[in-house]
UniProtKB/TrEMBL annotation:
Domain (HNH nuclease): residue spans on this chain: 8-70
Presence of the UniProt keyword Repeat in the record: no
Protein name per UniProt: HNH endonuclease
Cited CDD domains: HNHc
Protein species of origin: Streptomyces brevispora
GO molecular function: endonuclease activity
Record has Hydrolase as a keyword: yes
Pfam entry (one): HNH
Stretches of the chain forming a coiled coil according to its record: none
Keyword annotations: Endonuclease, Hydrolase, Nuclease
Length: 88
């Protein structure tokens, strides 16, 4: 998927979700108000692609703030590693 298409999806999800993290609910604008250098929310696959989640289905896309993204990424990495060990 091109970076332009990904940015377009992020803009649509941001509008749909009012700029809020789908895990904790924090508003991206609120974070930026408190810390102008804070990282923007990231566009996330709610069900990871390696677990069968769709790459572009709007129902599988949501925004995550940096702390929630970090926690979810660690959890997904652990599950992926466990799946690889079971498969070998």
């Amino acid at each position: 998927m091109s970076s332009g298409a990904w940015r377009s999806l992020k803009a649509k999800v941001t509008r749909r979700d009012n700029g809020c993290c789908y895990r904790c609910g924090i508003d991206q604008a609120e974070i930026k108000r408190d810390d102008p250098d804070a990282r923007d929310h990231v566009l996330d696959h709610i069900t990871p692609r390696f677990e069968g989640g769709s790459a572009t289905d709007m129902d599988n896309l949501g925004l995550l703030c940096e702390p929630c993204d970090t926690l979810k990424s660690k959890s997904e990495a652990l599950r992926a590693n466990q799946a690889r060990k079971r498969a070998s």
